[in-house]
Design a protein that fits this description.
By secondary structure, the chain is an alpha+beta fold. The protein has three helices and five strands. Helices cover 33% and strands 36% of the residues. The longest helix is centred in the N-terminal third of the chain and has 19 residues.
Length: 120
């Protein structure tokens, strides 16, 4: 397994831990369909949050969330709709929100974490 993949998995775990500590319930991780992958789906109160996680060792190549351009954001909206179509019971009665979490640092467990709600 590539170091990049390990870093990404560690960042996603840190993001999931952060969400749980914030009162969210994680209901799906790394959900895949023909259009791509959703990193995390979480519920808190009446919100269904689809969360994109970006992890970087440093800011040398820019902020992690700069990687979410308009094309990627549109793709995440399509993926969110596909997830909802596949899981109507979990989505029913909830407002969809797209969040982004950036984890920056050599060790994702201790690096900086930024959670942008309704980011996209």
């Amino acid at each position: 397994m590539a170091a990049k993949d390990d870093l990404g998995r560690a960042g996603e775990q840190r993001a999931a831990d952060h969400l749980i500590a914030g009162g969210y319930r994680i209901i799906d991780r790394n959900w895949r369909c023909s259009q791509g992958e959703v990193d995390i789906v979480a519920i808190r109160d009446d919100v269904l949050a689809v969360v994109e996680v970006k992890t970087r060792r440093s800011l040398a190549y820019g902020h992690p969330l700069e990687a979410i351009d308009d094309r990627k954001a549109a793709r995440l909206w399509r993926l969110s709709a596909a997830w909802i179509a596949a899981h109507p019971d979990e989505a029913r009665g909830r407002r969809l929100r797209l969040d982004a979490i950036a984890v920056t640092g050599v060790d994702p467990a201790t690096g900086d974490l930024e959670h942008w709600e309704d980011a996209l």
